[in-house]
Design goal:
Number of strands: 11
Oligomer: single chain
Order of helices and strands: EHEHEHEEHEEHHEEEHHEHHH
Number of helices: 11
Structural class: alpha/beta
Radius of gyration: 19 Å
C-alpha cells in the first residue's frame, strides 16, 4: 500500500453529462471541513465537450480523457490505480454533495475501523429515496422475490423486501450488503485486498460485485449512513443509450450470478435463471420501445 497523501482520492467517470459534471465538481470544491482530497475525472470520449469544460473551468482536476468509451469499471480503475488517498470515493457526475458530505464521510469511516465501504442516503430531485443506494446481494432467492413482484407487493416484509431493503427505516444507520457506485466510499486497505472493479462488467453490477468481494471474501462491513444526504439525478448518461444499456443491465445480472452463485446452484436452476434473465431483458426492451424518448431508461 502506497503512502497516503490525502484523506480522499475522488474518482468521477463521465460520459456526455457536461452540465451535471460541472455542478458536481462545484459541489465537491465547495466542501467544508479539514478534509484533504484530490479529484480525478475520467471522461469516456464524451461528444458534448465535457473534457474541454474540465480543462477550462477546473484546472485543479486531474483529467484523463479517453479516446473511446471503455466502460465504467475500466475507467474507474484507470484513476484508482493512481490513488494517493487513505480512502477512495467513487462519485457519479450526476450527484450534488452538501458542503459537509466529505468531512462526514471521512469521519464516519475513520470512526468505524471495521468499515470497508460506506454509502450515503441518495435522494432524487423530488426528495424521494433512491432505493438503489442500499441493497442486499442478489442471491437467487432475493432476485426471485424482486423479479416476481413480491418485493413490491410486500415492501415491509424483511424476507421479501431484501433486494432494496425497503423494510428498513431510510433514516437509520444500517449494516447492509451493498451501496451504489453513485457515492461509494471505500477504505483503501479494503480495496487493496479485494482488488479493483471487475472490468468484465460494463456499466452495471460492478459496485455490488466490489462490495461482495470486500464483505464476503475479506470480512469488512458495508454501511448505509443516512446522516449524509446526496442528491442523485440518476441515469442521465444511460438514457442516451437506453437500449444498449438495458442489455448491459441484464448481462451484468447474469455475470454476477455466474461469478458468485452458479457453482453452488443446481444446473437446472441455473438454466432457468438464464432463461428468466433473457426474457426479462426482452420485456424491458419492448417496454422501452413504447416509451416516449424523454421517458426511456436503462434497466428494469
Amino acid at each position: 500500500m502506497k503512502e497516503a497523501l490525502y484523506d480522499l482520492h475522488i474518482v468521477i467517470v463521465n460520459y456526455n453529462t457536461r452540465d451535471l459534471l460541472r455542478q458536481c465538481l462545484h459541489s465537491v470544491y465547495a466542501s467544508q471541513g479539514p478534509v484533504s482530497y484530490e479529484v480525478y475525472v475520467v471522461d469516456n470520449a464524451s461528444p458534448d465537450g465535457s473534457a474541454a469544460m474540465v480543462r477550462d473551468e477546473f484546472p485543479q482536476v486531474h483529467l484523463i480523457a479517453n479516446a473511446d468509451n471503455p466502460g465504467y469499471p475500466k475507467a474507474n480503475n484507470q484513476a484508482l490505480r493512481l490513488s494517493r488517498g487513505r480512502h477512495s470515493l467513487l462519485l457519479n457526475p450526476d450527484t450534488v454533495l452538501p458542503p459537509d458530505a466529505l468531512q462526514r464521510a471521512v469521519e464516519f469511516i475513520d470512526a468505524h475501523p471495521d468499515a470497508g465501504v460506506m454509502g450515503p442516503k441518495l435522494v432524487r430531485q423530488d426528495g424521494s429515496l433512491d432505493r438503489a443506494g442500499r441493497r442486499s446481494f442478489p442471491t437467487p432467492e432475493v432476485a426471485f422475490y424482486q423479479l416476481t413482484g413480491l418485493a413490491k407487493r410486500f415492501p415491509n416484509n424483511p424476507r421479501f423486501a431484501r433486494y432494496n431493503l425497503t423494510h428498513l427505516d431510510p433514516d437509520q444507520l444500517a449494516e447492509i450488503d451493498a451501496v451504489a457506485g453513485a457515492f461509494m466510499l471505500v477504505r483503501q486497505e479494503a480495496l487493496d485486498q479485494a482488488g479493483l472493479l471487475d472490468e468484465g462488467f460494463y456499466a452495471f453490477g460492478e459496485d455490488i460485485d466490489l462490495c461482495y468481494r470486500i464483505k464476503v471474501h475479506h470480512g469488512w462491513k458495508v454501511y448505509y449512513n443516512p446522516a449524509i444526504v446526496v442528491l442523485h439525478y440518476k441515469g442521465e448518461s444511460m438514457k442516451q443509450r437506453s437500449y444498449a444499456m438495458t442489455i448491459e443491465f441484464y448481462k451484468a445480472m447474469w455475470r454476477f450470478h455466474r461469478k458468485h452463485f452458479a457453482a453452488h446452484t443446481f444446473s437446472l436452476l441455473n438454466g432457468l435463471i438464464a432463461v428468466g434473465i433473457a426474457g426479462l431483458c426482452g420485456l424491458a426492451l419492448a417496454r422501452n420501445a413504447l416509451r416516449p424518448a424523454a421517458q426511456k431508461k436503462a434497466g428494469w
